[in-house]
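[retry 2/3] acetylornithine transaminase: previous attempt timed out, resubmitting with same input.
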Amino acid sequence: MLAAAALRRATAKSLRSTASRHVGGATRSMAAAERPIVPEEYENKYMVKTYNTDGVRGEPNLLFTHGKGQYLFDAQGRQFLDFCAGIAVSGLGHSDADWYQALVDAGKNVCHTSNLFHTKAPLELAKTLVDNSCFDKVFFCNSGTEANEGAYKFARLYANRLTKDTPLEGKKYEFISFKGGFHGRTAASLSLTYKPYIREAFMPLVPGIHHAEFNNIEDVKKHISDRTAGIFVEPVQGEGGVNPATPEFMRELRRLCDKHNALLIVDEVQCGLGRTGKLFGHQNYDVTPDIMTLAKPLAGGLPIGAVLVANKVAACVTAGSHGTTFGGNPLICAVANTVLGKIMDEDFLLNVQKRGRYLANGLKGLQDKYPEKVHEVREPVGPGGLFVGFECTKPVGPLVKYALSKGVMIISAGEKTIRMCPPLVVNEEDIDLVVKTLDDALAEDVI
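[retry 2/3] acetylornithine transaminase: success.
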């Protein structure tokens, strides 16, 4: 009895000692974690650096902590007007109340089941996309590059079925994309992308892909044939400097695709979902595509991609020919339903058109005022959109840094173009601030 009691006392003492050490260790770990984060130090030490930020970050240790609407706030409490929306992602801005509530509500239910089972949100999202487009079926994935990979594979499957037991069997695998275009950084999407400096290290790439001159239908004719499976085109090239396709060019692409039994594939990862003033960018043109890819703003900052296809394409996709673990995630699709519902609203889109025209006119005023410094202002075809290219005669890196120092976040597209792709909720006062900031910079000979 005495021995047992002594053993219990010794055991309790040991446990208290162990717990004390654990608590002390946790305290020390928490104290270490509470030390201020130095962004550049952490990035250089712990992260693989894949982005060139030299022309973006005027302050190397700028650290954003939260956002509201079209504004971001840093660790020092400073406010910044976000006029890049995470590269055309945050269409509703930051911390939108409906977006947040959808996320909270969905998080209380189910986050993941795999695509072997049904959940409500992706089914609803698919129906909404189909009901409000010219397409018949949807495949969900996780990003823009993955959406374009899916579109590439679906087009290959369609071409294979179309040419089965014909002289073209196994030979209809070529694609046309365009100089200035950007479709992603994975295998097929990188091959479709034109930028040489991001392609060279990965040669040889996927065979059979030709890059034609954008808005030059005669050059397209040099590359297209009955071996062409599809043409990938952005109605407005984003990385290419906010460069819109002309109506004539889009109509001729459709005609050539029909002539050669090829699919017209519109990449709307960046220009879709309200950015051009219409729900989809191709709706500003008198064409009906066969496939469309979406991503960036669809879930308002959460990772999602979508491939929308005509029935003739969907019929060629069989079980196992493509798939994804996380695509159609119920939590993200629930948020996307809320985002899409708000962007689809007629008044919302009319406001985007109005603000887009106001922005373009303000920037054209700067072009008139500084013709030796501003080369061109480009905007989408149609009634107006919050997607404008401000091309200068010199590299715009200094302009981007100057604007950041004044609390305005803008980004470039190429060396000489500022890409205006703000949250779709900006107002005229915000636009006035951006135009004034650029006006001041140009007056001060920043470039």
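[retry 2/3] acetylornithine transaminase: The radius of gyration is 26 Å.
[retry 2/3] clearing retry counter.
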